[in-house]
Amino acid sequence: MLSSSRFLLKGLLAASCTFAFAADECAIHGQVDGSNGSPSPHAAVTVFRYPLDSFGRPAQVFAGASADADGRFCLLDLPDGIYAVRAGSPSNPPSARPDCRSCCDPATVFAPAFFRQPNSKEAAATPVTLRKGRAAEAVRIALPRVPAYCVRGEVRNRGGKRLVGVGITLRSSDLASTSTVFNGEGRFLLTGLPSGDYDLIVHASPLALGQAPLAQQSVHVAGRNLDHFVIVVP
After folding, report:
1. Does residue 105 fall inside a structural domain?
2. Which pTM was predicted?
C-alpha cells in the first residue's frame, strides 16, 4: 500500500526553484515522457523496493507520487536500498455512459513502463540503487503507446436483478491504482484500458470505499473489447 509518510513530492513548479536545484535534494528524480518524446504531464510514478518476487519482478510497492506539468518528479526521504521505478499516464481510466458505442472505437493510450536503461539486460526494470539517500543519476522513463480497450458490463445479484447505485473500483494488478465510477442502472463502461489484468470491486455506493466490498472479480483484457461482463454480488 502506498504510504504518504514515506515520501514527499517536491514542488518543482515554484518560480524560485529550478529543476537542477531540486534534483540535489531528491532521493530519486527524473522525467516521464511519451513515446513521441514529449513530456507526460502529471504521470503517476510508483516505486517498488526489491527483493524480487518469484517471477523476477519487483514485489513491494514502497511509495508513489505524481509528476509535475512538465513530466518531472522528485521523491524525498527514501531509505537506502534497491528500487524499481515505474510510471504511467495519469491514472483513473475514464468511464462513459454504458450505452455509448463510439466510446469503444479503436484508440491508443500510453501504457505504464518501468525505467530501463537502453542497453539493459534486465527483463523488466533497471534497478536504481540509493546510497546515502541519493541515486547516482536521473531516471528517464518513456511510455509506449499501445492499443486501448473497454469493458462494458453489469452488476447483478444472485437473482439476476441489476443493482443500481453501487460504486465500481477498477484496480490495476501491477500499478495499484484505483478508479471509481458510478454505475447507471446497474450497468457500467470503462474505457481507455491497455491490455492487462484488472480487479473490479463493487462497493455499496461510490462513497463507501472504506467499507468491505460487496464483490470482487478479476478481468483479463487482451486485444479486444469486453462486452456483457457480469459481476455477481452474493
Report:
1. no
2. 0.70
